[in-house]
Structure formats: structure tokens, C-alpha cells
Amino acid sequence: MASAVQNPVGRNAVDAAQSRAGRSRPYRDARAEYERIRALKEISPIAAHLRERRFELGLTQEQVAQAARTSHSAVSRLEKGTHIPQLLTLQRIAAVLDEELLVCFQRTVDGEVEREFAAVA
Q1: What is the pLDDT of residue 54?
Q2: Which of 68, 82, 84, 106 could form a disulfide with 92 if both were Cys (CB 3.0 to 4.6 A apart)?
Q3: Domain range spanning residue 97?
């Protein structure tokens, strides 16, 4: 009887991740959240970024909304990719997430892309 080929280092990454997921509910929840964020990036990169950053900081939508002086529903719609807030609101949300909102102006001159970034004041 032939024995199964064993990886000399151990299990492959997929098997190891599935094993961890089976043992840890928080690990499963985090994997599921990051999968939702990856899918959201296809729809709205801004929404995905804000959701991921909020998740990393362990904040709820309600906490972000209160600190940014906006409504919970506005944060929820923004994270779903169904709403684009005013720049001032987006700037306040970015500040709550310890980030700075920048705008970029882009143009093409003689085939060269030129970009200029500026902080939203």
C-alpha cells in the first residue's frame, strides 16, 4: 500500500488555514470579513478601504458615525458602496480612522500621466 506524499514542511497553506478556521470562531469571522472586503473592492474601492480600516481598528459603524458626527446609516451606505458622502464627511470619517483624505488631480500631457495630490483642508 502506497503512503500519501507528505509535504516536508508540514501542511499546505490551505489545509492549515482550514484547520485554524475550524478551531477558532474569531478566525473564521475575520476570514469571512476580509472575503467580503475583497468582493467590495470590485464595486467600490473607497468603501472597501474604509470598511477594512474600521475592521482593523475594531470599531463599529456606530462608533465611527458618532466620532465623525454623521449618522450610522450614512456610514453603512458608504461601506456598502451605495453612497458617496460630501468631502467634509469623508474627511471626518478618515480622521476617525487615523487617516488623511487626499484628492488627486490627474491629466495626460504628451502621453505622460501627471498627478498632483493635495490634502482636503
Answers
A1: 93
A2: 68
A3: 16-119
- Give the model confidence (pLDDT) of 3-42 as tens digits: 555 554 677 777 777 777 677 788 878 888 888 888 888 8
The DSSP annotation for 83-112 comes to ----HHHHHHHHHHTT---EEEEEEEETTE
Residue 64, in any domain of the structure: yes
How far apart CA 94 and CA 109 sit, in angstroms, is 32
What mean pLDDT is predicted for residues 109-113? 95
Instruction: Tell me the pTM.
Output: 0.70
Residue 92 sits in a domain of what CATH number?
Answer: 1.10.260.40
* C-beta separation of 27 from 20 below 8 A: yes
Are the C-beta atoms of 97 and 57 separated by less than 8 Å?
yes
Query: What DSSP line would sit under 41-62, residue for residue?
Result: HHH-HHHHHHHHHHHHHT--HH
pLDDT of residue 70: 95
| Closest to 75 measured CA to CA, from 86, 62, 88, 58 | 62
